[in-house]
Write a structure and sequence with these properties.
Elements: H1 5-23, H2 30-43, E1 53-59, E2 62-73, E3 80-85, E4 88-93, E5 103-112, E6 118-126, E7 136-145
Parallel strand pairs: 4-6
Antiparallel strand pairs: 1-2, 2-5, 3-4, 6-7
Amino acid sequence: MRHTPHMIEFVMLAKSIGALARSISMPRHLPWTAAALLAATTFVRPAHAERTSISTSVEGPDLLVVVHDLTDYCSTNARTDVLRQGDVIRIVRDRPTRVSRCVITRDVTFVVHDIVPGTYMVSYEQLPFVAPARPLRLASTTAFVHDTRAE
């Protein structure tokens, strides 16, 4: 293959850039500092951020579950299921098929019918809009239901 002057010029330029890059020394702690800064800005929530929480109360034979400070789309058509299995109550919100452009923080109330006395683990889970395909637990609490008929 015959080398043109432009090819030779390009090779010389590439060699000089490589030599310049090798001559610049990067401090040894810089990658760790950058990684720590990235982790801090990505995974740490602000101290004043509202966290989703759950409160429960018994009203007759039903358990009233209130999910506080839930951030969600203003209008959506996502299905929410209340799943009961033994002493575990899971409130699972499905992925929305249509979303709005605004986001709101509000309290959402659910009623679990015909609850028997006992201790229950209550959780609110949500399927994210994009990924992963499993529900993420946003809040959980333990609910104590006492037999009101014995009093």
